[in-house]
Design a protein that fits this description.
Cathepsin B, Chain A; 8% strand; alpha/beta; five-stranded mixed beta sheet
Length: 272
């Protein structure tokens, strides 16, 4: 068939007779005789009618569906990571002023931070007795160093200043290290609230809001309380062997070793 069509439309040779070629296609063409012999039956397509409903009923059903749908519960994050670089300061800021207030800070965060540091220094200088209400001892020389750091260090807050924050906000500050098996529990005598912070190996702080007493106790389980972040334990001579063994047992450590080795292993497990 393609050979015949090719000869009709592309007559490359003078010997090609188009009329003869068309005649050969006669039996393939549609004539009245063929049409009459084989009539085509057309089956009409009937569109299926959609069931009709009362408009008022539909509206009532729609209302019932909307009102009966359960409302989604707000998602409560286990902890919040500040978006600014100084995660220690801004975690404490969230703990004191709230997450909504923190989210309104869009620029000049360094200026606002320095302003709060100035208030901390002024308040504690006017009320030095606040320093005596924390469960950590600090010398007058160390206090002056804290004041200096608060007013000059605009990049990243130091853990050396954590007592100043506790005294100014008048709150307990509980910091748990998520990789090391230790926590630092700073208690302020007149506090009725505790700011709970998490610390990871990247030296990034996160705040865990609305943390209950039971949840804090769970964080303490299988961890050791630090004397301070810079001096996790007291000197070796302060401890008896059974005291070190008890701490090692709490951390699920092997304690069948000499006192010096046990002390060093404990330090390795808990120091920040």
């Amino acid at each position: 068939m393609s050979l015949i069509a090719d000869k009709i439309f592309y007559c490359y040779s003078e010997n090609n007779n188009v009329c003869e070629l068309i005649a050969k296609l006669d039996n393939q063409m549609l004539h009245h005789s063929i049409e009459n012999e084989n009539p085509v039956t057309i089956i009409p397509i009937v569109k299926k009618e959609q069931p009709t409903h009362n408009t008022h009923t539909q509206m009532e059903n729609s209302k019932e569906t909307v009102t009966s749908a359960p409302q989604p519960k707000p998602v409560v994050l286990p902890y919040i990571t500040p978006k600014h670089r100084d995660t220690l300061f801004w975690s404490l800021y969230i703990g004191e002023y709230g997450y909504a207030d923190y989210n309104r800070i869009s620029f000049n965060e360094g200026v606002q931070k320095l302003g709060i540091h100035q208030k901390i220094v002024d308040t504690l200088k006017q009320q030095p007795s606040r320093w005596k209400q924390v469960n950590q001892k600090i010398t007058k020389v160390a206090i002056e160093e804290v004041y200096s750091d608060l007013l000059t260090n605009i990049k990243k807050s130091s853990l050396d200043n954590i007592l100043a924050y506790a005294c100014y906000f008048q709150k307990n500050i509980f910091i748990v290290h998520m990789q090391q098996k230790s926590y630092w529990d700073i208690q302020y005598e007149e506090a009725d609230e505790t700011i709970v912070l998490r610390l990871d190996n990247d030296n990034c702080f996160h705040i865990q809001p609305d943390c209950s007493v039971e949840e804090i106790q769970q964080l303490k389980n299988n961890r050791i309380s630090l004397e301070s972040y810079s001096k996790p334990l007291r000197p070796l001579s302060f401890y008896k062997v059974n005291q070190l063994q008890e701490m090692a047992s709490n951390l699920h450590m092997d304690y069948a070793m000499k006192k010096q080795d046990l002390y060093e292993n404990l330090l390795h497990q808990i120091k920040w």
